[in-house]
Amino acid sequence: MWWSKSVLMAGMLVLGLAGCGFEPMYAKHGAQTSAVADELAGIRVAGIEDRQGQILRNALVSRLNPLGEPARQTHTLEVVLNPSQENMAERSDGKASLGRMLINASFRLVAVDKKASSYSGSSRSIVSYRLLGPTYGSTAVERDAETRALTDLAEDIRAQIATYFANGKIQRKVDP
């Protein structure tokens, strides 16, 4: 009998969410794409300095515009990175054995038609990594940590912008 109560509670939860107007941010209705996905697809990511900037830009482009550059550009995303690294632990011979990479990103979403900032925000990623003895091993580990941190930043920036659009910043199209 305990399972019947569980089924009943799950049903009440689903009905409660449907009744309060809950709708997933990326929900599709019929053959349409979601309004948030349409807005994200109209964002062009401006160039970002240095190698880390290139990696972040590529990650953002693949998350915002998986089908390529926007056909109808509505916004430009400008990002500035501020990376730093530090050694956190030392071995008995005095060499670092544990490192930490911190990358701060501040970004600005600029509407193309207004040339003014629509939304701005910041994101941070902290990644720890173990330094290996040989130079090549340490370099490979640092590059992997860098890629993980930049992927984290791309996901967070995308989520912040999607939330901005989902919270009513989109002019909803009404079909007749």
From TrEMBL:
<protein>
    <recommendedName>
        <fullName>LPS-assembly lipoprotein</fullName>
    </recommendedName>
</protein>
<dbReference type="InterPro" id="IPR007485">
    <property type="entry name" value="LPS_assembly_LptE"/>
</dbReference>
<dbReference type="GO" id="GO:0019867">
    <property type="term" value="C:outer membrane"/>
</dbReference>
<dbReference type="Pfam" id="PF04390">
    <property type="entry name" value="LptE"/>
</dbReference>
<dbReference type="GO" id="GO:0043165">
    <property type="term" value="P:Gram-negative-bacterium-type cell outer membrane assembly"/>
</dbReference>
